[in-house]
């Protein structure tokens, strides 16, 4: 059966100072439509790399495997085509764009995606109204829209700004790479609610996290454990508690 | 392939065919023989029916020029220019003034159409008088200079009613000789520098603006320069005089056809601001930059200088420089009046093999004079860009202040950006601040934008416009939009 997202035998490497470094070593993962899956795993296991490869970052070279996204060969698409097709990545470390007004950036992005999806572009007034409502729902300070993209934002503000972008871009598939890290308890809940609001039969998500607490608010359908560039274990939402109390040692030992 | 390499290549590839103003117009031309000598100068002066004093002024400038050598201190490289291998006078052949659009040389009309000037204005540009009061767009009075000759000036009636004189300088010489004689060469003397001397000897036209006491000019004034003829040098001379308490905003745009050979452009602009007067001078310079191999393009050697003569006067230069093979240009302010203000806002973009050496000079003479310099330099391809600025504070300039901010943005790793600030302070109480940064458009930034659905070109455009925002916001609204588009075009060539 073809899934919403099908990752099969995905291998990717990076050229680090002239040395080929194998990072993904055969990732298999399928996400059905409407489901939220979580990935947990030790530092450096390749979680962010997987999200970059899915989003189309060019410095990673895919050496084997395939990714099918809603029936399309995802790996053959440009990053902006993937975005237009509905893929969104909330960055682990959001990037600063000095001089670029946040609202202007968001509107340019929203309209680029709307154009590509054959939808009508939003004018400045309509956009600002939507953007203000969405940022309010995330308890963001009103001036965040006027400031330069991520410049001088606190860690938590950056993460909220990622969720704001996700809300406005209306993806069908969102990857959240440690969006919970650096958030205070209230922010954590607000961000989780932001994702929950998007949940529908036509929205799936892959949530990368180190903390079980996020998954209390954002209960996933499945949890996968990633280690050394592979998914080594999968289970239900209860897996989070087990990892929280026991760590990864047992999974690593079993996989070896 | 890393994103940055690809961007660089995309930028380079697209940059080549993106000069959409590169067409040539076939119009009957009146050309002087090649070369510059006393006879050519007499011929120019005679064609313009100039008074004797002006001819003498030109000839003395020519004598001075002959004694001078081309300056070599700028960080630009080009083969020696043969000054005798160019025409110093080229003018569209004049027929008796057209009465309607039908009578105007259709080629000239087509040129304006290609330049994107609306038909309504085309009619005016082509010299057709329109029924008074028929103005669809926000009024901008235009003086169009085609090769060396001013073709037409619009909105003259409206301006005259306000007391503003806006006309070709050749006409001003005839109609307002005392004014021209009083101010011409008082800011940029005939023998100021090699290119200014050349201009003084050989200038053929340009614009003249005079705003009398207490008058705020009722509309933006604009001059449109276009080089068309082959092997011609274009030497316009602009003179703007604003009396006590008066103000004006002046725009300047430029284009030229694509040609294999280089063409010389050596203009002089003089501004005079009296007490409480203010002059805003904005330029969007889009001369042909040459092709991707550095063939052709305009050599732009320009002397622009403003004198803040009166107390509390203000001169503000804003420039967006995207064109020319070589740009050599330092719009300056002489801050003589007490409390006078000089401003310089600049964006200089170079791509392919373009070279730009540009900046400003702020000369603080009077007490409490203030100057602000914001210079943004963007380099792509194998281009090279230098900001060269001088802040000079003379002993009596008590309380003088300067703030300078120079930022460079690099796209790719084969281009260069340099900042050369000179500070000469002879008043210990003066406050001079200088800040400089250099940055690169990073792969991270491009990927982030693309992940949000922007094309690489749009991403570069967004980042570049963000980088230039402090300067672009100084431009008059309509011009700012045009400048933004131009920036994008000169960097990624989004137009096929
Ligand atoms: N550009 C790069 N150059 C060199 N090594 C890299 C590069 N990108 C990733 N790596 C390496 O690949 C491995 C996986 O990195 P990745 O960021 O995917 O881990 P992660 O699972 O997201 O870790 P964390 O939980 O700390 O965020 C790490 O060892 C990292 O150092
Ligand atoms: Mg990570």
TrEMBL record, chain A:
<keyword id="KW-0067">ATP-binding</keyword>
<comment type="similarity">
    <text>Belongs to the ABC transporter superfamily. Ycf16 family.</text>
</comment>
<feature type="domain" description="ABC transporter">
    <location>
        <begin position="2"/>
        <end position="253"/>
    </location>
</feature>
<dbReference type="Pfam" id="PF00005">
    <property type="entry name" value="ABC_tran"/>
</dbReference>
<dbReference type="GO" id="GO:0005524">
    <property type="term" value="F:ATP binding"/>
</dbReference>
<protein>
    <submittedName>
        <fullName>ABC transporter ATP-binding protein</fullName>
    </submittedName>
</protein>
<dbReference type="InterPro" id="IPR003593">
    <property type="entry name" value="AAA+_ATPase"/>
</dbReference>
<dbReference type="InterPro" id="IPR010230">
    <property type="entry name" value="FeS-cluster_ATPase_SufC"/>
</dbReference>
<keyword id="KW-0547">Nucleotide-binding</keyword>
<dbReference type="InterPro" id="IPR027417">
    <property type="entry name" value="P-loop_NTPase"/>
</dbReference>
<dbReference type="InterPro" id="IPR003439">
    <property type="entry name" value="ABC_transporter-like_ATP-bd"/>
</dbReference>
<dbReference type="GO" id="GO:0016887">
    <property type="term" value="F:ATP hydrolysis activity"/>
</dbReference>
<dbReference type="InterPro" id="IPR017871">
    <property type="entry name" value="ABC_transporter-like_CS"/>
</dbReference>
From TrEMBL, chain B:
<dbReference type="InterPro" id="IPR055346">
    <property type="entry name" value="Fe-S_cluster_assembly_SufBD"/>
</dbReference>
<dbReference type="InterPro" id="IPR010231">
    <property type="entry name" value="SUF_FeS_clus_asmbl_SufB"/>
</dbReference>
<dbReference type="InterPro" id="IPR000825">
    <property type="entry name" value="SUF_FeS_clus_asmbl_SufBD_core"/>
</dbReference>
<feature type="domain" description="SUF system FeS cluster assembly SufBD core">
    <location>
        <begin position="225"/>
        <end position="467"/>
    </location>
</feature>
<dbReference type="GO" id="GO:0016226">
    <property type="term" value="P:iron-sulfur cluster assembly"/>
</dbReference>
<dbReference type="InterPro" id="IPR037284">
    <property type="entry name" value="SUF_FeS_clus_asmbl_SufBD_sf"/>
</dbReference>
<dbReference type="Pfam" id="PF19295">
    <property type="entry name" value="SufBD_N"/>
</dbReference>
<protein>
    <submittedName>
        <fullName>Cysteine desulfurase activator complex subunit SufB</fullName>
    </submittedName>
</protein>
<dbReference type="Pfam" id="PF01458">
    <property type="entry name" value="SUFBD_core"/>
</dbReference>
<comment type="similarity">
    <text>Belongs to the iron-sulfur cluster assembly SufBD family.</text>
</comment>
<feature type="domain" description="SUF system FeS cluster assembly SufBD N-terminal">
    <location>
        <begin position="161"/>
        <end position="217"/>
    </location>
</feature>
<dbReference type="InterPro" id="IPR045595">
    <property type="entry name" value="SufBD_N"/>
</dbReference>
């Amino acid at each position: 059966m073809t899934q919403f997202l099908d990752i099969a035998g995905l291998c990717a490497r990076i050229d680090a100072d002239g040395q080929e470094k194998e990072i993904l070593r055969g990732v298999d993962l399928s996400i059905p439509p409407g489901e939220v899956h979580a990935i947990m795993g030790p530092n450096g296991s390749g979680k962010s790399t997987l999200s970059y490869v899915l989003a189309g970052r060019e410095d990673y070279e895919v050496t084997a495997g395939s990714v099918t996204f809603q029936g399309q060969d995802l790996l053959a698409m440009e990053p902006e085509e993937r975005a237009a097709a509905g893929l969104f990545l909330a960055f682990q470390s959001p990037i600063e764009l000095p001089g670029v007004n946040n609202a202007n950036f968001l509107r340019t992005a929203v309209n680029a995606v709307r154009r590509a999806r054959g939808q009508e572009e939003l004018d400045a007034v309509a956009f600002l109204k939507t953007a203000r409502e969405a940022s309010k729902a995330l308890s963001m300070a009103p001036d965040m829209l006027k400031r330069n993209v991520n410049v001088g934002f606190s860690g938590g503000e950056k993460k909220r700004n990622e969720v704001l972008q996700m809300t406005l871009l209306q993806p069908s598939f969102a990857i959240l790479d440690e969006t919970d890290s650096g958030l205070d308890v209230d922010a954590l809940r607000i961000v989780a609610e932001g994702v929950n609001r998007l949940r529908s039969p036509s929205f799936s998500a892959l949530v990368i996290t180190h903390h079980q607490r996020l998954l209390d608010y954002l209960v996933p359908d499945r949890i996968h454990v990633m280690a050394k560039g592979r998914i080594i274990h999968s289970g239900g939402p209860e897996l989070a508690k087990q990892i929280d109390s026991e760590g990864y040692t047992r999974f690593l030992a079993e996989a070896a | 392939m890393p994103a940055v390499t690809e961007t660089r290549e995309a930028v380079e590839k697209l940059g080549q065919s993106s000069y959409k103003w590169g067409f040539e117009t076939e119009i009957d031309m009146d050309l002087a023989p090649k070369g510059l000598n006393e006879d050519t100068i007499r011929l120019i002066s005679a064609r313009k029916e100039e008074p004797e004093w002006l001819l003498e002024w030109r000839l003395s400038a020519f004598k001075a020029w002959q004694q001078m050598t081309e300056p070599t201190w700028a960080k630009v490289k080009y083969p020696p220019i043969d000054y005798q291998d160019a025409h110093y006078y080229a003018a569209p052949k004049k027929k008796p003034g057209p009465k309607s659009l039908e009578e105007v040389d259709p080629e000239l009309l087509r040129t304006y159409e290609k330049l994107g000037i609306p038909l309504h204005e085309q009619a005016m540009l082509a010299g057709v008088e329109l029924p008074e009061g028929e103005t669809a767009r926000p009024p901008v009075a235009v003086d169009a200079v085609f090769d060396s000759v001013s073709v037409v000036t619009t909105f003259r009636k409206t301006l005259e009613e306000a007391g503003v004189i806006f006309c070709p300088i050749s006409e001003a010489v005839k109609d307002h000789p005392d004014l021209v004689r009083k101010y011409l060469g008082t800011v940029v003397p005939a023998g100021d520098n090699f290119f200014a001397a050349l201009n003084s000897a050989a200038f053929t036209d340009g614009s003249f603006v005079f705003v009398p006491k207490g008058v705020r000019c009722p509309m933006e004034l604009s001059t449109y320069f276009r080089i068309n003829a082959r092997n011609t040098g274009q030497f316009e001379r602009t003179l703007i005089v604003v009396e006590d308490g008066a103000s004006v905003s002046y725009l300047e745009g430029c284009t030229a056809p694509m040609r294999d050979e280089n063409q010389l452009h050596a203009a002089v602009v003089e501004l005079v601001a009296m007490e409480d007067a203010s002059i805003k001078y904005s330029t969007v310079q889009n001369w042909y930059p040459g092709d991707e191999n550095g063939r052709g393009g305009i050599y732009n050697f320009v002397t622009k200088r403003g004198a803040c003569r009166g107390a509390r006067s203000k001169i503000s230069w804003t420039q967006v420089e995207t064109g020319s093979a070589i740009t050599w240009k330092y719009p300056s302010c002489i801050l003589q009046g007490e409390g006078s203000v000089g401003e310089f806002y600049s964006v200089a973009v170079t791509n392919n093999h373009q070279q730009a050496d540009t900046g400003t000079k702020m000369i603080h003479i009077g007490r409490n004079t203030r100057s602000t310099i914001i210079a943004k330099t963007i380099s792509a391809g194998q281009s090279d860009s230098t900001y060269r600025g001088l802040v000079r504070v003379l002993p009596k300039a008590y309380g003088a202040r300067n703030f300078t901010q120079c930022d460079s943005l690099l796209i790719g790793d084969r281009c260069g950006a340099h900042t050369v600030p000179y500070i000469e302070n002879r008043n210990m109480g003066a406050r001079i601040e200088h800040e400089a940064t250099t940055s690169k458009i990073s792969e991270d930034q491009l990927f982030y934008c693309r992940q949000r659905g922007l094309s690489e070109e749009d991403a570069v455009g967004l980042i570049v416009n963000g980088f230039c925002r402090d300067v672009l916001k100084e431009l008059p609204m309509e011009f700012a939009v045009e400048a933004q588009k131009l920036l994008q075009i000169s960097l990624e060539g989004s137009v096929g």
